Amino acid sequence: MAGQLSLRSLGKRLGTEVVGADLSRLDDDTFAEIEAVFRDHPVLVFREQKLDAHRLAAFGARFGHLREHILENYRHPDDPRVSFITNVAKDGSVDKFGVVRASSWHADETYDPPEKLPRLAILHAVEVPREKGGTMFADMYAAYETLPPAMQEKLAGMTGRHGYTDGPDARKIYTGKHIEERNAGRPECLHPAIKEHPVTGRKVLFVNPTHCHGFVGMSNEESEPLILELRDHSTRDELTYYHKWRVGDVVIWDEIATMHRGAADAAPEERRIMLRTIVHPN
Q: In whole angstroms, what is the distance from residue 210 CA to residue 110 CA?
């Protein structure tokens, strides 16, 4: 590619390493080059970075608007727009919720209405397990494109009903009263099952099993088999990328064009500390 950056493919469909960028001090031309690359490569990896909360937020803010994270306990004390993804509690013990948090396939914040959907998320590795502990990404362009034509046609007329943590896979992590408390006072948000990407114009399958609990005109019970069928279709090996973290990695992913999940495959006592921010369009 033109410019000072070079690219290296990491996965079959997703995962592109960008070489030659120091994210702590980007000039405008290099940032514009990253934005251009991101349009066509929805999961970008930058190695050997060192960003504190302020610098991570500053980098994210170049893409759009940052909001304080919904889970107050995981907000960074130096900048509440940055949160921790971690299995380490404040007293140094294992954070049991942190072990399983975000381990089901999802796109972030689809419990919000269409005009508030995030553009992208950024995750920065501070401490990583010695083995495993990766993050998985699914290509939702390819998920749509590889659907049988009859299923594409069926889904084109369907609208997903989304909540906070009550999709069929979320119920494996959040149970009973926990689900009720987290969804209390939150109205359902509706998103088309097949969505046009706001930047590329390409169609994506926009159904995730954490936040999508049903479809308009169908009960949750009637909807669940289809949600799980679409999950299994979208997350086949040939459509996914497993990112094995190194300290200093920064990964950026497109929140419309992908789903993701923490693999939750490392030993719980293996420390994992990440800094994360979610970016919304301006």
A: 9
279, 120 Cβ separation under 8 angstroms = yes
pLDDT tens column, 82-119: 999 999 998 999 998 888 888 999 999 999 999 999 99
List Cβ neighbours of 140 (8 Å cut-off, separation of 6 or more): 107, 204, 205, 206, 234, 256, 257, 258, 259
Read off the pLDDT of residues 227-270 as tens digits, 9 standing for 90 and up.
Answer: 999 999 999 999 999 999 999 999 999 999 999 999 999 999 99
Lowest-confidence region among 19-28, 133-142, 169-178: 169-178
* CA–CA distance, 202 with 255 (Å, rounded to integer): 14
Return d(Cα 44, Cα 46) in angstroms, integer.
7
Q: What are phi and psi of 246, to 5 degrees?
A: -120, 150
Calculate ∠ Cα 66-69-72, nearest 5°.
150
* Distance between CA atoms of residues 129 and 266, nearest Å: 7
